Q: What sequence folds into this?
């Protein structure tokens, strides 16, 4: 039964790609190459089109950053054009990643969560209370650790060119302010449908309730759950202050965005085209981090006017970290013991500076 469903899914995916190629603004010559090293697009004088698939809408910093990438690429060459598709117009994140493997999509920029199914080591970002500040994030991801982790994607037929940013997840509830570990006891917290996240919130003393994102607002409105956790911009844009009174800065999980390119298509590009794309992905990533952090700060200031805000103290945060240590040990082998040890060592080295 599974094989039949899997076959039908792949057949539907390929049919979807065929329709998009036939009906899209670009000709098939613009999105594929009949030769290696970009010879078809460069030799014929026709620009090759790079399509970017995004799961989020055009109000999110991710879209604006992708448009920055488009601007950077197209200002440097006439041989490449960039088209940005938001709101899952081409595919959801997981399907878009698979399309990269097939070579039927050029670029996608998902968060790390759906990529864990392809490269388990990316599960390090689900380990709770590890990355706890933007300074730490930049030191770890823009350094040797981030470079080595990104290199693991090529075995899956994908090239990661840069780290972009989704952000830190924070806690809200409608019961009481949260200042200590004990304040969490017994709260019903909606969590993502992810076993590591569920076990994390159990370790913190709550009653985690896995639930689809689309059901969350109604669940809080009807008091099915007491609270939830998401980045500041999401809390504001989804109008959670209408059904939540208390906001707590926990920074319990950091989520990066991954700038991913199909290796099949990457290998067809000329070295000059590859360098333009790589440098644009990195520069647009710097723009993305700045914009995402600015957006989060602005969202927080607006939320403070609508909710009662608290921040977990550094001393109390150590108690939170101690409480979730068994979860990190439990999932270490699943993520990869070696990569987890490297990750935690990098964090410890940064913290001791």
A:
């Amino acid at each position: 039964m599974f094989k039949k469903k899997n076959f039908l899914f792949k057949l539907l995916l390929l049919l979807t790609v065929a329709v998009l190629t036939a009906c899209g603004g670009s000709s098939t010559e613009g999105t594929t190459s009949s030769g290696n090293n970009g010879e078809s697009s460069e030799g014929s004088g026709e620009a090759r089109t790079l399509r970017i698939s995004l799961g989020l809408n055009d109000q999110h910093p991710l879209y604006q950053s992708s448009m920055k990438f488009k601007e950077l690429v197209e200002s440097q060459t006439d041989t490449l054009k960039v088209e940005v598709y938001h709101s899952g117009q081409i595919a959801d994140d997981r399907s878009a990643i698979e399309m990269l493997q097939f070579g039927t999509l050029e670029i996608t920029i998902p968060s790390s969560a759906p990529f864990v199914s392809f490269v388990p080591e990316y599960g390090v970002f689900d380990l709770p209370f590890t990355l706890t500040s933007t300074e730490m994030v930049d030191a770890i991801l823009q350094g040797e650790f981030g470079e080595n982790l990104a290199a693991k994607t090529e075995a899956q037929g994908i090239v990661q060119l840069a780290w972009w940013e989704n952000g830190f997840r924070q806690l809200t509830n409608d019961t009481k302010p949260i200042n200590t570990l004990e304040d969490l006891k017994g709260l019903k917290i909606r969590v993502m449908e992810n076993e590591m996240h569920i076990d994390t919130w159990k370790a913190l003393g709550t009653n985690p309730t896995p639930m689809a994102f689309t059901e969350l607002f109604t669940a809080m409105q009807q008091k099915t759950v007491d609270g939830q956790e998401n980045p500041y911009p999401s809390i504001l844009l989804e109008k959670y202050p209408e059904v939540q009174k208390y906001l707590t800065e926990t920074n319990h999980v950091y989520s990066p965005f991954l700038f991913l390119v199909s290796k099949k298509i990457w290998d067809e590009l000329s070295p000059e085209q590859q360098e333009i794309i790589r440098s644009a992905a990195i520069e647009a990533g710097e723009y993305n981090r700045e914009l995402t952090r600015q957006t989060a700060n602005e969202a927080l200031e607006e939320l403070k006017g609508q909710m009662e805000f608290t921040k977990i103290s550094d001393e109390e945060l150590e108690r939170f970290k101690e409480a979730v240590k068994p979860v990190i040990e439990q999932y270490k082998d699943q993520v990869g013991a070696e990569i987890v040890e490297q990750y935690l060592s990098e964090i410890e080295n940064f913290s001791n500076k």
Residues 1-43 have pLDDT under 50 and may be disordered. The longest strand covers residues 158-168. The radius of gyration is 21 Å.
